[in-house]
Write a structure and sequence with these properties.
Helices cover 87% and strands 0% of the residues. It has four helices and no strands. The longest helix has 67 residues. The model has no long low-confidence stretch (mean pLDDT 89).
Length: 165
């Protein structure tokens, strides 16, 4: 049994010697890896700072550009909307409310001019629910497009920060 113990002890000693032989280079490699990681983190932090300074410096112009980026689309929307038969019919339907309001206002003025007690009712205003539904649909789709744009901005930032000089 003693020979087996000696064999195992000898093997342990050899492995320990090998481990000690590689411990120095391993420690050096690990230190080098950590230094490279720290340098990369510092480089990324500098690039991120550069990107953030650029974003701040150009934000007003970019915000103005973004705000007006829909102007042409808005004009096209109004033109296309006005050409839609359902829209023209809805406008005609809604105009009846305004016509009624003008008639009531004219009658109220006439009774006031005649020094009569005003018996003409006030105009009743009510909201058109179709507009709310259109607006909800537009906002939902616009928010989705805005989220896509946000993802593109995040990708630009990451690409800029990750770029190697």
């Amino acid at each position: 049994m003693a020979t087996e113990i000696e064999k195992v002890a000898e093997r342990v000693a050899k492995l320990r010697a090998q481990a000690e032989k590689f411990a120095g280079p391993l420690a050096e490699a690990e230190a080098q890896l950590e230094a490279v990681r720290e340098a990369e983190a510092a480089r990324r932090a500098e690039r991120e700072g550069e990107y953030n300074r650029h974003v701040v410096a150009t934000s007003r112009d970019r915000a103005d550009e973004a705000a007006h980026s829909g102007d042409d689309a808005h004009a096209r929307f109004l033109e296309a909307l006005s050409a839609e038969p359902w829209f023209a019919a809805y406008v005609e339907y809604r105009s009846a409310r305004y016509k009624r309001g003008h008639v009531l206002t004219e009658a109220q003025r006439a009774q006031t001019a005649l020094r009569e007690v005003v018996t003409v009712p006030e105009q009743r205003w009510y909201e058109a629910e179709i507009l709310d539904e259109i607006q909800r649909t537009v906002e939902k789709q616009a928010a989705a497009l805005g989220a896509k744009f946000s993802e593109e901005l995040d990708a630009q930032r990451e690409a800029f920060v990750a770029e190697q000089d």
